[in-house]
Sequence to fold (213 residues):
Amino acid sequence: MLHKVLEIRGLSASTYVLRLERNGFSFKPGQCVNIGLKDSGVNREYSTYSGIDEPHLEFLIKEVKGGTVSPGLRKVEPGTEVELHGPYGSFIIKPEQIETSSFVFIGTGTGIAPFHSFARSYPNLDYQIINGIRDINEQFDTQDYDPSRLTCCISREKSDGFNGRVTDYLKQTKIAKDKIYYLCGNQGMIYDVYDILRNAGVSGDQIFTEAFF
Fold:
């Protein structure tokens, strides 16, 4: 399916938001799609970043130097059509849990994308986000979250928040056994956090994962 580009919103030297026309596209928050330049025959998988009821689609994309898709998408002019296929994936919240359960979302880098979609889609959701980033300027769209629900773990710069990795933060924090955990980002983080949660007594069926790389 072809979708017109509405806007490319730069967030940092390496990260941007791609906004596309909705064009009747239906998805569940947390699902991903494949996006590519028109007629290129090459696409990449990105999680939805926008809310389920918003009139457009958004995707949080990290530009990969020398990459085939992400650098090209960043240069696309508004009005240009790109290819979109999907949605795919089961990294979603069960409808019956939206109003009844408490969630902890743990991500690194652009792994915050599906959590942004959750927060935009479900206003009454009981959640906390723990986001691992390298630099202060990677705190993207923080105005979209209740400040009391967002913890940024910054590993390379000193800040007023937590200085260190997500795993460092979790090791210093009491882990709640009754919450549902969603992990998204690089595989190394997911493996390490999964072990921390399991060792703290969290049941494996309360942990859901989505590896970006």
User: Anything to note?
Assistant: Residues 118 and 185 are 16 Å apart (CA to CA).
